[in-house]
Design goal:
Structural class of chain A: alpha+beta
Largest sheet of chain A: 7 strands, mixed
Number of strands of chain B: 12
Helix content of chain B: 25-40%
Number of domains of chain B: 2
Oligomer: heterodimer
Number of helices of chain A: 18
Strand order of the largest sheet of chain A: 1-5-6-4-7-3-2
Structural class of chain B: alpha+beta
Order of helices and strands of chain B: HEEEHHEEHHHHHEHEEHHEEHHHHHEE
CATH class of the largest domain in chain B: Alpha Beta
Number of strands of chain A: 12
Strand order of the largest sheet of chain B: 1-2-6-3-5-4
Shape of chain B: globular
CATH class of the largest domain in chain A: Alpha Beta
Distance between the termini of chain A: 48 Å
Strand content of chain A: 15-25%
CATH topology of the largest domain in chain A: Cytochrome Bc1 Complex, Chain A, domain 1
Strand content of chain B: 15-25%
Number of domains of chain A: 2
CATH topology of the largest domain in chain B: Cytochrome Bc1 Complex, Chain A, domain 1
CATH superfamily of the largest domain in chain B: Metalloenzyme, LuxS/M16 peptidase-like
CATH superfamily of the largest domain in chain A: Metalloenzyme, LuxS/M16 peptidase-like
Largest interface: A-B, 131 and 105 residues
CATH architecture of the largest domain in chain B: 2-Layer Sandwich
Chain lengths: ~500, ~500
């Protein structure tokens, strides 16, 4: 029920869950996983990935759809995320006391919502009397419909069966539904999830829209980091939908309707757009047959329309300020290509050099040595990875040091990447840290399921996990210099600063 | 790439943060006979009617040992992955720092790690650990010190040596003490940036008192008053083998690891430690309504009062009652009424936080737009009053029990979780079979028990209410709920500080 956290994490970021790959020593993450992933495509195009991990009698499920805010049209920002909330509202049988009686009420509510919207959108010319009448009627109908709802029934059934980590998240690239259950609840999961994919009902839509507005106030409007990130990303992308916030602009969210959610579902939630990853105490072959039986019957749908907009090459630095009553911070982003670009692993190496651990270059320079910042970090792949995206730098200044000083210190490290060859030992450290992180990432069922489904959906193949380590190992000092010189340049960057507003002090 | 995947994982934990009640030992078992037939797509089973037996499971147990110097070890082998984790708990805490040096305990915990050891400087230690992908940390919280090491199996022997050096012989290098103090002060400057942190902090002060060790907090003055000598003395006073426990899990040979641990920790000499007296938490402060002005569009609401200790026999029933009221998400009353039905909040719930050594807390929380602040407070209050006034229906109790018992298995998801819990139970003086008793006690809870603990431990008439927000935009003035006390922030917000640009 969350929008993916899009705020960059500071130096406190722990190196977890990078990927799974082959390491040179005896026991490697790759060898620990190799041959254990059962990989099937159902006749309707749905992808199913399973790993047996019989440590504890539990199973983690991750259903990832290749749809996110990047697939929204102008004026409907926030739809992918609001849809994700609606996926917890039930179906024709779950979440209702009497769907036959509920349905006409829901249709009428949808019609009234549009009427109210149309009247409201007249602005000053709106007919106040009519608006009041419509709203009264709307409230009465909602009350009538609410009486037929079994609130939160999907979640309650899961809870009663011992669910852990029941949640969902929406990002620019993907929307994900997760839950872990005692191992023998597999039949329950198949029934609930296949039902949710075939007979969803968008009840309580307009109340949930208000909940999402509260989520927006929490994550963005009253959160300095969220506020800066939203403005930053909007400035960095002039054309590509990556520039639009996943949670949606507040005014767009106010105009979202249940019929729009239905249309979005029909277009993007077809089986060929879904990846199911299941990890835990299960018999993989048997499970795959049962998944095929439960989900294979869902009719195939045409592929959703592609995202065609390309971000034009940036032709000069963009600088923005966001005034907010909080201590300052800074975000810098450079455009780069997508996850499957041959140079993408070079950015992963640069991210690690700059940002992984207390010996990383940014921490060493800005936090330990110059002491101009309390946190400094880098990230490759903001706000997503499926399409050309950003390489970002972030820092939190330490008073009395200014944003100017911090920016200069960040850029000095970028400059160094372009000038000096990275020492071999530093590249070796990057790989060692990666290898250890990869092994750690195998410690949890839900973490492994999450990664398998994520890379299958975003990179197009879960085996990205098996390959990325070797691709990073092949990166040379010259690659780092070449990529930094080509992409991490002034013309290609956006700088965003959070600054306190100037307040006129009242006379004492 | 790391950022990418982590972002996803971060998102997945969000709701738990929102549900603030970390101590949810939610759990399971139960179930009846399986009608669990293979799913037939044509006539799917009714998920409401599906029942399952308890999953058969006997969690492994850690071996406990005591070295001659008093150091307690918990050991549990787990050979699935070539990793080893050591976790330590040390009997200390910010409870014991002097009132004019608040922040001393936290700084000591931090600089034990960053300041290096007598044999290796802080930066060299970072280099060595990070080169092999190891992680080592140290910290001191309110009522415990902690330390951890996570290494690949091949690096374990060296890891044990470094871990012991950090715990026994930290160097507290002056430059790292200085850096840690500067960072702590920047943290203080930034503590009003997020309304949620203002609310948590100030609510805690209201419950425990701004001077009590459970309520007080550091200021620039108390941090500036701390010297390197203070850190050295704090460490010397509390870190001894007889105040320390270490739990080990992972891919090791037990006898070999014990030999390594004895080699590294055996020579550590025990010492008798005397602890400063912590004043007992004062009885329930008077009910009050408190307002903190912050120009934001969403109000942070907290309302509650002091709570119980974890060892209280009523904890089991109260914990279930809290699940029903607001501790669970989908299944709770607050979530249903305030979020699902009224659309007033994204984040809403309740939490019973049991105290380890003294009284814990109980509170309701929500974040709602300024214009529905009073409405949300009223709605939350009504739910609290309702659960105290009217008996919880049998069916609702049964749902909560099932949720609790059926998710019990997730309390044993990893060896580290099992062994760390055993260590922590001993640290806090709870029985080793606390969790098993918890399950047995939960099974026995009746609706009468719920009614009794609700009356005894929940006090809707004695609430401390706190709202952080812009009262000019509230739907009704806060004074609707009683005389309002305006609390000034301990320091100006960024806009009113000298040129932060």
């Amino acid at each position: 029920m969350t929008v993916m956290i899009r705020r960059l994490r500071g130096a406190a970021r722990v190196a977890i869950a990078v990927a799974i790959a082959i390491i040179p020593s005896a026991a490697t993450a790759g060898s620990l996983l190799e041959g254990r992933v059962i990989d099937r495509t159902l006749a309707n195009g749905m992808r199913v990935l399973l790993v047996e991990r019989p440590v504890v009698p539990t199973v983690s499920y991750n259903v990832t759809f290749r749809v996110g805010s990047v697939n929204e049209q102008t004026g409907e920002s926030g739809l992918a995320h609001l849809f994700e909330h609606m996926a917890f509202k039930g179906t024709t049988t779950i979440g209702t006391k009497d769907y036959a009686r509920e349905r006409p009420l829901l249709d009428e509510i949808d019609r009234l919502a549009l009427d109210i919207q149309a009247e409201e959108d007249k602005g000053r010319a709106a007919d106040a009397t009519r608006l009041a009448e419509l709203r009264t009627r709307f409230e009465a109908l909602q009350d009538e419909a609410r009486a037929l709802v079994a609130p939160n029934e999907l979640g309650i059934i899961y809870d009663r069966n011992g669910a852990a980590g029941l949640n969902a998240s929406t990002g620019v690239d993907v929307t994900r539904y997760t839950v872990s259950l005692p191992a023998n609840r597999f039949p329950l999961w198949t029934v609930l999830e296949s039902d949710r994919l075939t007979h969803p009902v968008f009840r309580e839509f307009y109340t949930e829209r208000a909940v999402v507005q509260e989520e927006r106030r929490m994550r963005v409007d009253n959160n300095p980091g969220g506020k800066l990130y939203e403005a930053f990303i909007a400035a960095a992308f002039a054309a590509h939908p990556y520039g639009v916030p996943t949670i949606g602009w507040a005014s767009d969210v106010d105009h979202l309707t249940a019929p729009m959610a239905r249309e979005f579902f029909d277009r993007h939630y077809g089986p060929s757009n879904a990846v199911i990853a299941i990890v835990g105490d299960l018999d993989a072959e048997k499970t795959v047959r049962q998944v095929a039986a439960a989900f294979g019957a869902i009719p195939a749908r045409p592929a959703p329309p592609p995202v065609v907009t390309l971000e034009p090459a940036q032709a000069g630095e963009r600088r923005i300020e966001v005034e907010y009553d909080a201590q300052p911070q800074i975000l810098i982003g450079y455009h780069k290509s997508d996850i499957n670009d041959p140079d993408d692993p070079v950015f992963d190496v640069i991210e690690s050099l700059l940002s992984s651990g207390r010996t990383s270059r940014l921490y060493t320079s800005l936090v330990k040595t110059r002491q101009v910042a309390v946190a400094a970090s880098a990230a490759s792949g903001e706000p997503g990875a499926r399409y050309p995206n950003l390489f970002t730098l972030q820092a939190v200044p330490r008073a009395p040091h200014t944003l100017d000083e911090v920016e200069a210190a960040l850029l000095a490290e970028v400059d160094r990447l372009q000038r000096e060859a990275v020492p071999a030992r530093e590249l070796e450290k990057v790989l060692n840290r990666l290898d250890a992180a990869l092994i750690r990432s195998l410690q949890s069922n839900s973490g492994l399921a999450s990664q398998l489904a994520y890379y299958e959906a975003v990179a197009g193949d879960w085996r990205y996990l098996l390959r990325i380590r070797d691709r990073m190992a092949a990166v040379t000092p010259e690659d780092v210099r070449r990529v930094a010189a080509a992409w991490l340049v002034k013309r290609n960057r956006t700088v965003a600063r959070l600054v306190p507003p100037v307040v006129e002090r009242a006379a004492p | 790439m790391r950022a990418r995947v982590e972002r996803h994982q971060q998102a997945a934990v969000e709701r738990h943060q929102q549900a603030a009640a970390f101590v949810f030992l939610a759990l399971v078992l139960f179930g009846l006979v399986a009608t669990a037939r293979a799913a037939e797509p044509s006539t799917p089973a009714d998920p409401r009617a599906m029942t399952f037996p308890a999953v058969p499971f006997s969690p492994p147990k850690a071996k406990r040992m005591v070295l001659p110097n008093g150091l307690i070890l918990y050991l549990l082998e787990d050979h699935e992955l070539p990793l080893v984790t050591l976790s330590a708990m040390i009997r200390t805490g910010s409870l014991y720092e002097p009132a004019d040096k608040i922040g001393l305990a936290a700084l000591t915990g931090t600089v034990m790690r960053t300041g290096g050891t007598v044999s290796l400087g802080g930066d060299a230690l970072d280099d060595e650990l990070e080169f092999v992908g190891a992680e080592m940390g140290s910290g001191i919280g309110t009522d415990a010190g902690s330390a951890s090491l996570n290494v690949l199996k091949k690096d374990l022997a060296r890891g044990v040596v470094l871990f012991a050096d950090m715990l026994i012989r930290p160097a507290f290098a002056p430059d790292k003490v200085d850096l840690a103090k500067k960072q702590a002060i920047e943290g203080i400057r930034r503590r009003n940036d997020h309304p949620a942190s203002i609310a948590s902090r100030e609510f805690n002060k209201l419950l425990y008192g701004a001077r009590h060790p459970y309520g007080r907090e550091s200021t620039e003055a108390t941090v500036n008053a701390i010297t390197r000598d203070d850190l050295v003395a704090f460490h010397r006073r509390y870190y001894h083998p007889n105040t320390t426990m270490i739990a080990a899990t992972g891919d090791f040979d037990r006898d070999e690891l014990v030999r390594q641990l004895i080699g590294a920790f055996g020579p550590w000499k025990p010492e008798k430690v005397t602890y400063p007296t912590v004043p007992p938490v004062k009885d329930q402060p008077a009910p009050s309504v408190n307002s903190i002005r912050r120009d934001v569009t969403q109000t942070q609401v907290r309302m509650g009062h002091l709570g119980i200790k974890q060892a209280d026999p009523d904890y089991f029933a109260l914990s279930l009652l809290d699940d029903i009221l607001g501790g669970q998400a989908f299944s709770s009353r607050l979530f249903r009424e305030v979020r699902t039905k009224a659309g007033l909040a994204y984040s809403v719930g309740s939490a019973v936080i049991p105290g380890n050594f003294d009284r814990g807390s109980f509170f309701l929380y929500a974040q709602t737009k300024a214009g529905s602040t009073a409405q949300a407070i009223s709605a939350m209050k009504a739910e609290l009053e309702g659960i105290v006034a009217a008996p919880v229906p049998e069916r609702e109790l049964e749902e909560a029990k099932q949720a609790f018992l059926n998710s019990f298995v997730f309390s044993f998801s990893s060896s580290a979780q099992i062994v760390n819990r055993q260590m922590s139970l001993e640290y806090y003086g709870l029985p080793a079979d606390f969790l098993e008793r918890f399950r047995a006690n939960v099974e026995k809870v009746t609706t009468k028990d719920l009614a009794r603990v609700a009356r005894k431990h929940l006090h809707p008439d004695r609430l401390i209410i706190l709202a952080v927000g812009d009262e000019r935009a509230f739907d009704k003035p806060l004074s609707t709920f009683g005389p309002v006390r305006a609390i000034p922030l301990d320091q100006p917000t960024a806009a009113l500080q000298p040129a932060a640009r």
